[in-house]
Each structure stands twice: as C-alpha cells, then as structure tokens.
Amino acid sequence: MNNPQREIRRVRHETVQRLLTVAEVTDLTPKMRRVTLAGAELAGFSSPGFDDHIKLFFPGDGADRGPMRDFTPRPDAAAGILHLDFALHGAGPASDWAQAARPGHTLRIGGPRGSSIIPVDFDWHLLIGDEVALPAIGRRLEELPGGARAIVIVEVENAAEEQRLSSRADVTVQWVHRNGRAPGDGTQLLAALRDLTDWPPGDYFAWAAAESDVARAIRRYLMGERAATHGWVKAAGYWKRGAEATHERIED
User: Fold this and answer.
1) What is the pLDDT of residue 168?
2) Are residues 229 and 190 part of one domain?
3) Strand-pair category, 233-239 with 204-211
4) Residue 228 lies in a domain
5) pLDDT band with cut points at 50, 70 and 90 for residue 1
6) CB neighbours of residue 184 within 10 Å
C-alpha cells in the first residue's frame, strides 16, 4: 500500500507565453548544447517539478505558425535565467534552431501547464533514460538532499556524450554507449537495467524517459519483475521513432 506521505502531488499553472532572449550558448558535449535564456518576461516563471515540460515555439515560414516542441526547463531563479539543453541530432526545428542560436536571438516559450511534485524521502531513487532525459535527471539529482540515494542509468552515443551530474545525494551512475547503434533501440538500456545487481532494499521511486516503446518496456519490467509500486513508477515517451513532436505519458 502506498505511503500517503509519498504520494505524487500535481499542481496546475496559469498558461503564459514569454518572449525571451538568448544570453549564452554553451556546448556541454559534442552533441548537447545548452542555451541560456533571460529577459523581463521570465518574471513569475514557475517550474517546481523536475520533469516539467514547456512548449518552445520556433519560427515558421511565411504566415504559417512555426513548429512547437516540448522541452524540460532548467530554471535558475536566483540568477533570473532559464537553461534549455538541446540534443544536436541532425535536422529538425529544435536542433536547427539551437545550432544557429547566438546571444541576442529570441525564443518564445509557453508553460508549464502543470507540475508533478515527487517527494524526495524515498529509501532510494531510480532514474533511467536516454540523452533526452538528461535535463530532467540532472534537475532531480540537484534537488535530492544529502543522505538520499539514487541509481542512474543513461544511454548516450559514446563516452564523449557523458555529462557531469551534480548532487548532494549518494549517486551511482551507469553510462550505456550505443557506439553507432540506432537511437531508440533500447536493447542495451534494458539490459543494463536487468543486469543491475545492486538493487537496494526499501521503498523506491522509479522515473524513466526515453523513446516511447523503450519507456513502456522499462515500466513493464519494473512492474512485472521488480515489484515496483504502481504509484511510484513514472514513465514517459519523450520521443517516438518515425514520429515528430511526441510526448507520451506511459501508464500501461
């Protein structure tokens, strides 16, 4: 039975669009670029959930509305800035915009519409996904307190794509390298999860984000073979092979 002190709390926000200006562009890895946004319209921005997502509105052609994409925001309220991390994975509106971004460029954002507030006082935390999950994983690790424990499994292209993840918690990170395999295959990521031998005792919260079918397979494994508590597993498809602009909540 779920501990009522460990229930996920959901909050709604007023939907607001903001026009922000690029303040800085930083390459975290060869294929991950951080664009830092600032501006007066950032006042009042609230994103209390580590896996919140906002809409990015990219410029369109002519009179047509431009494409939109969901991204995890990484706000720094004290500095009055907002970080967005872009995977540079070939052609696409988000990747194209990020590759061309320079200080002074502008970008319109909207949201978040809502947040899931997940308690930090579990016995341990499991965070798993591919590179698109890294912004949310990074946020979660930064907010975990000292004394907490987390196990992280992340699939990236190769060793050059590994990022430094900061946390006060006791964190074990396992990097899985595709080394030329197609993104979204999921075989290696699932194998790393199944091969995890240090499975701590106690109540744990599991969070997964990856290609939709991969995220679904992770959830099914945790529920079926690791006796995960239903309310303490959250999985999402942040993208789907062969589709555009996918963000799917996985509940089956």
Assistant:
1) 98
2) yes
3) parallel
4) yes
5) very low
6) 18
Q: Are residues 135 and 77 in the same domain?
A: no
Number of neighbours of residue 228 by Cβ within 10 angstroms: 17
- Cβ(22)–Cβ(97) below 8 Å: no
Instruction: Note the pLDDT of residue 147.
Output: 96
Q: Which of 114, 133, 158 represents a domain boundary (last residue)?
A: 114
Looking at the fold, whether 74 and 169 belong to one and the same domain comes out as no
Alpha-carbon span 52 to 168, nearest angstrom: 21
Domain CATH code at residue 174: 3.40.50.80
Residue carrying the six token digits 């039975």: 1
Which tens digit of pLDDT belongs to each residue from 92-120? 899 999 999 999 999 999 999 999 999 99
Reading the block at residue 46, the tokens are 């609230």
Burial grade of 12 (CB within 10 A; 0-12, 13-18, 19 or more): exposed
Helix (H, G, I), strand (E, B) or coil at 206: strand
Judging by beta carbons within 10 Å of its beta carbon (0-12, 13-18, 19+), is residue 250 exposed, middle or buried? buried
Which of 114, 131, 149 is at the close of a domain?
A: 114
Q: How far, in Å, CA of 93 to CA of 55, rounded?
A: 13
Instruction: Dump pLDDT digits (tens) for 158-217.
Output: 999 999 999 999 999 999 999 989 999 999 999 999 999 889 999 999 999 999 999 999
Tokens read off for 55? 């809409």
Task: Give percent above pLDDT 90 in the chain.
Answer: 84
d(CA 7, CA 50): 16
